[in-house]
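User: Predict structure, ligand zinc ion.
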Amino acid sequence: MVSFPFLPCTGKRWGRAHMLGIALMALSGSLGASAQGAVTAAGNQATTAIKVDQVGYPQKGPKVALLSAPATSFEIKRASDGAVVFKGQLSAAASDADSGDQIQAADFSALHKPGKYYLEVPGVGRSWDFSVGPDVYRRAYYLAMRGFYGQRCGTAVDMGPEFPEYKHAICHQKGEFHPSSGTAGPRNNIGGWHDAGDYGRYVVNSGFATSTLLWTWEIYGKRLKAISLKIPESGNGTPDILNEARWNLEWMLKMQDTDGGAWQKQTSEHFSGFVAPEDDDLPSEVIGTGSAPYKSTCATADLAATAAIAARVYLPFDAKFAKENLDAARLAWSWLEKNPDVLFRNPSGVSTGEYGDRNCKDEMLWAAAELWRTTGEAAYNQYFHQNYAAFLPSLDKPPAESWSQVGSLGMWSYALTRRKGTDGKAKAAIRARTVTAARALAERTENSPYRNSLQTRDYEWGSNGGVAEYGAYLLIANLFQPDRALVDAARDNLHYLLGRNTFSLSWVTQLGENPYQHPHHRPSGSGKQPGPWPGLLSGGPNAGRQDAELAKLPKNLPPAKVYADLTASYASNEIAINWQASLVFLLAGELP
Ligand SMILES: [Zn+2]
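Assistant: Predicted complex:
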């Protein structure tokens, strides 16, 4: 039994603009496993008072675990036989206002020998197992990318022998135009990724997520090209990260009308129940603004930017597909010149995610920058030159990037452009401001007890996505001016997501010894699989408490603790492709 209470958008910076208000009667789950401590792979009881990155620590660089119970010393033991390999003293306690925890640090950076270990504190207990090695995040990257494969729509999905029960039959095979699109009849819009815990597909969020993966390839391709994701296209000569991104990109291209504009989204009129993808029989409709020109500026500009990146990224692998993207990007730009200000609001009778945005100027800037970088044509450079200055201050407040804030992406792409004619003064300003802000951010991160970049106000809808976006900001700054401190701070944000947090919880499903269990995610909640679909990042703690499960938590709970590992907690435990893409970027940045 489900109900669909509509909750207003609160204008969250990172959160999705829509809220999936589902009251679940039959589903349960609790934080019990992590709150009480659970059993490690070796059958030992671990304590959540010790917080480690449950995936591990790269061999080179800082290695720090955190402790929220008073103690003086710690030992690192080999997981296979309990032999002590390292002894150390804990730091003095620091008070963390956001969680209410007293935190001590266990620094074992001097341990370099690869292996599997755990940390033990006399009188407190032992941690989950973790690895030290030269390439500890490879599997995490693999699982996070496979998370996108699991979100594929319009095809049967099978996660393979590693997760034998995780499969779904072909879904959402019929598309049609909703009256708000300005046309009628069937539409062959099969494909794309399910956006989040629901089965909608949204051009705006697809733009951010897909382009983040394409950027990941452009920046870290050398590290990624040999990694097989074991997807149907593997071995076809194109790197798998690009094979996966293409699945969604092809759907995005189908969302473009012949005049160049892109419709906002393709969803049912309201959210489906908690059923498996193949069991959702609500019509999948192409939804527009409800009046001429029916397409929206932000969606069209996001499509233009993403297709422009694709035009250069796919060129060495499939020139025809690259050209198709370039044509789409140019056509979209020509539509934008005529329609620079068409905002989207859900038309009457439609209650799925809106991804509404009151200002599409940043999307236009991004599209112009990517088109300039790809084509070298003066008109795009001129648009960028005339408009970028207003966005420079946004770089001073990281993370400057999210699905609704893409001016930073435009500026960064421009600053990475090597084309003759690129404005050197603009490039220098963008680089300098990004690096200055990132250095301050890195310092703040290292000085915070949990060593993440979040400030008190950041514990809002999608805070874990925010953690990943902070990490991505630091890595971009490192491209402009390589600095080990920036990479280390980015890695500290990754440690937070993978278990070094107040709950001692890995926020990626099926990763680490104590991962969260109950994402707000229809395939995982359909009851057809024994646990959550693998590789998916949770939205994370959210002091905004916009769902009933969070509202029930004690009133005086500090913001970092406002989280419920419950399927019904859509405001703290949903998954979404934009957060997922930032996680992939962060993981790729930490691969050797
Ligand atoms: Zn589907």
